[in-house]
Amino acid sequence: MVNYRRMKLKSTDAVYFLTMATENRKPWFHPEQNIFIVQQTMRRIKDRFDLCYEAWPILPEHIHWLISPNRADYSKVVFAFKRGIGAEFKKRGQLQDGEKIWQARFWEHTIRDDEDYQRCVEYIHYNPVKHALVDSPFKWPYTSFHEFVAGGIYPSDWAEGSEIVIDGAEYDR
User: Fold this and answer.
1) Which of 33, 52, 134, 144 has the fewest CB atoms within 10 Å, counting from its CB?
2) What number of CA atoms fall less than 13 Å from residue 133's CA on the CB side?
């Protein structure tokens, strides 16, 4: 097995971009009741670990988070989140024995500066358009984009009707 190391900063103001994908990209989070489970679990994890979700979308087969974990170990946050989702799906009879919701690992990127932060926020908010789920970020209801619009950071028609280019996004599939 490959010896894999993640970058973890001791600073309480560190920000990380995390991606968690479902096993074989199965669209577990397509029905609305399953998205509710994800949102509910995100709230529990936020309270339990005292973290801040800076930006996020919930897509049918993956989730992105831009988080400030404060003092929490983000690997433990992701583990608790994935485990919580699995337990809730099992409790509701949506997960059979031996069936997996999540890929074993998750992807992590440590935010380096303000420009990197902005690039990741834009990537997150454009993601539903990139995956052809909607033609405007505003039309995807399961995202922090609406909070950014309400806060005056983005206009509601940001990236509507045009493809935007985000440096580094060409490496994403």
Assistant:
1) 33
2) 23
Concatenate the DSSP letters of all residues of 85-106 into one string: HHHHHHHTT-S-TT--SB-S--
Residue 89 falls inside a structural domain: yes
142 is catalytic: yes
List strands edge to edge, sheet with 62-68: 52-55, 62-68, 16-21, 107-110
Distance between CA atoms of residues 134 and 140, nearest Å: 6
pLDDT tens column, 59-111: 999 999 999 998 889 999 999 999 999 999 999 999 988 899 999 999 999 99
* pTM, two decimal places: 0.88
Q: Would residue 3 count as lying in a domain?
A: no
Q: Tell how far CA 67 is from the center of its chain.
A: 9
Active-site residue (options: 123, 126, 142, 154): 142
Q: In Å, how far are 25, 98, 156 from 64, measured between CA atoms? A: 14, 25, 21
Give the domain extent around 109: 16-171
